[in-house]
Design brief:
- Helix content is 49%, strand content 17%.
- The protein is an alpha/beta fold.
- It has 2 domains: 181 residues, Glycogen Phosphorylase B (Rossmann fold, 3-Layer(aba) Sandwich), CATH 3.40.50.2000; 168 residues, Rossmann fold.
- The strands form 2 sheets. A 7-stranded parallel β-sheet has the order 3-2-1-4-5-6-7, sandwiched between helices. A 6-stranded parallel β-sheet has the order 10-9-8-11-12-13, sandwiched between helices.
- It is globular and about 65 Å long.
């Protein structure tokens, strides 16, 4: 039987992580599929032929988009050339909306455009709600991972389906105990982010806060979650020879063992919630990016765990509020209050229930194959 070519586009580490199991599941359901696209080591391991690696595509903030623009334009041209020459019937776009929506618009202008599935929607509930009209025109099916996104896209006339959050499956091997053991060792997890710029901005503040805590608590230990795509030398630059700061290559395993965490805003805040670990969310960006974001983003809270809950259940220290002393104060409020821990963990329950029961990858794979019929 003739093989069928599918294009799958991810532009960040999280996209690579979420896309790879979709490829694996689709191959199980139809062994005659071949995949080409952009992504990282996870997708490559599943046999995806990469036209570009996520290391070349990572964009940080509004100013980063301008610097990356020539490279992204060139990549879009090469992708369009590939689609036309290989008669691609289906394109799967995974997150990375700035590039992926632009690419989808160009694909729909082709003489015989492929079907387009977008997995993990642009955060139109946070900013640029006008994108919904564009999405209706250029995306054939939107697979969303947050239940509150269903109504938003349906009201805009988008063909949308809630598939559940892939983290449910990805964390299943870490979350055999659903409740936190309050007798855990006193381990503070520091998750400074998965991008180099995030690590450089957050880790020095986190370490300073950890040192302040360590000076008062001899029983405390501190683990730093390392992103696999970042060289360990970057972390060692900040950690130096501090014997009470331990590097963890598996940040999820670190969270699993932790009693509390300081977490860079992003998907990791949901990971901490699903593993039931009380947390303080932090984020700092460049002054330019912060000013632009303040004007464009219409949210009271920015942490995904708080957005999903619909209210602030964990503290957020953003931009100028992120200081070592403020982080120490926020962590101490949780560390020394069983009532505060219980309040956060009670808030997590609603978050967990809203994200579905698992199986997101299978649903996306079945959706994709159904679009090829």
């Amino acid at each position: 039987m003739q093989t069928e070519e599918i294009l799958i586009i991810a532009g960040e580490v999280s996209g690579d992580l979420h896309a790879a199991p979709v490829v694996a599941e689709m191959k199980k359901l139809n062994p005659n599929l071949t995949f080409t696209g952009t992504g990282g080591p996870q997708m490559s391991n599943e046999g995806v032929h990469l036209l570009a690696d996520i290391d070349e595509l990572a964009v940080m903030g509004f100013s980063g988009i301008i610097q990356m623009l020539p490279k992204l334009i060139k990549l879009k041209k090469s992708i369009l050339k590939f689609v036309k020459s290989h008669n691609v019937r289906l394109v799967i776009l995974v997150d990375y909306p700035g590039f992926n929506l632009n690419l989808a618009g160009a694909l729909k202008k082709l003489n015989n455009p492929p079907k387009i599935l977008h997995y993990i929607a642009p955060q139109v509930w946070a900013w640029r709600a006008g994108r919904i009209k564009l999405i209706k025109r250029i995306i054939d099916k939107m697979a969303v991972v947050f239940p509150f996104e269903l109504d938003i896209f349906r009201r805009g006339g988008v063909d949308v389906e809630f598939v559940g959050h892939p983290l449910i499956d990805e964390l299943s091997k870490y979350s055999s105990d659903t409740e936190v053991n309050n007798d855990k060792a006193n381990l503070l997890a520091l998750l400074p982010g998965s991008r180099e710029q995030e690590i450089r901005r957050h880790l020095p503040i986190m370490i300073k806060a950890a040192e302040m805590l360590l000076s008062k608590d001899t029983n405390l230990s501190v683990g730093i979650g390392c992103a696999p795509e970042i060289k360990s030398s970057l972390y060692k630059t900040f950690v130096r020879e501090h014997e009470r700061l331990i590097l963890f290559n598996d940040s999820k395993q670190l969270l699993k063992q932790a009693s509390i965490a300081a977490v860079c805003s992003g998907t990791a805040t949901l990971e901490a919630a699903l593993l039931n670990i009380p947390q303080v969310v932090v984020y700092r960006t460049s002054t330019l990016n912060y000013i632009l974001a303040k004007r464009l983003i219409k949210l009271k809270n920015i942490a995904l765990v708080n957005v999903t809950a619909g209210k602030k259940i964990v503290p957020e220290l953003i931009q100028h509020d992120l200081t070592a002393q403020n982080l120490v104060n926020s962590l101490n409020q949780i560390l020394h209050s069983s009532e505060k821990k219980s309040e956060i963990q009670n808030g997590y329950r609603a978050v967990k229930e809203s994200l579905g029961e698992g199986g997101a990858t299978v649903r996306v794979a079945e959706l994709a194959l159904g679009m090829m019929d």
